[in-house]
Amino acid sequence: MKHLVWILALAATTGYAQVPYNEARLQWTAPATHTDGSPIVNAITYRVEKQSGTAWSSVTTVSTTTYAATGLGTGTHCYRVRAIVGGVQSAPSNTGCKTVTQPAPNPPVLTVVEVVSGYLYSPVFPITESGARSSVFAGLTKVGSPCDGPTLFKYQGIEWKRPVRWRAAAWADQSLKVAAPCG
Q: N or C: which end of the chain has fewer CB within 10 A?
């Protein structure tokens, strides 16, 4: 039973399905003979054992040459297997271990917001006669400021309405029809 346990954590490109980070898949080769060299003719079952500190305990008994340990917590998990034929068990196989680490989260999505004089401001744009947003900058409104009226348009899922208070650019007329993202 030497070289019995393999911990599989191979990517799909090797022909195996990708193993989740908190799972260990064990696979071993069935022995063909007894320790005296006689062939094994009876059914073989296998006792899967897991190490806890210096002690080993039985996890399960299976009749196949594979086992999946699922839901593993962070840390190192070590396993070995014993063959059982006619009620007689073999010496343990070699040990196979898998170290489980918590995967890193996906990175956040960064949005750049302009900062003016220590306050967060959003741009205010004039609305053209056709109802479209002009590309000309008309002024600023503080982020989160209230707006009134109907939604004039949506951009990247944000509603743009007329800001209640806004600071016009030097050239802009305060009576312009304008839109800003509303808080």
A: C
Calculated CA dihedral for residues 36, 40, 41, 42, nearest 10 degrees: 110
End-to-end CA distance of the chain: 68
> Domains in the chain: how many in total?
2
Q: How far is CA 13 from the centre of its chain?
A: 20
Task: Give the range of the structural domain holding residue 18, as residue numbers without chain letter.
Answer: 6-100
76 with 134, same domain? no
Gap between the Cα atoms of 58 and 121, Å rounded? 63
Instruction: Give the pTM.
Output: 0.52
Is there a single domain that holds both residue 47 and residue 130?
no
Q: Which residue has the tokens 């490109």?
A: 13
Kindly state the tokens that stand for 3: 């070289």
The string of pLDDT tens digits covering residues 45-103 is: 999 999 999 999 999 999 999 999 999 999 999 999 999 999 999 999 999 999 999 88
- In terms of domains, do 93 and 167 share one? no
Q: Do 36 and 82 reside in the same domain of the chain?
A: yes
Cβ burial of 59 (10 Å; 0-12, 13-18, 19+) is middle
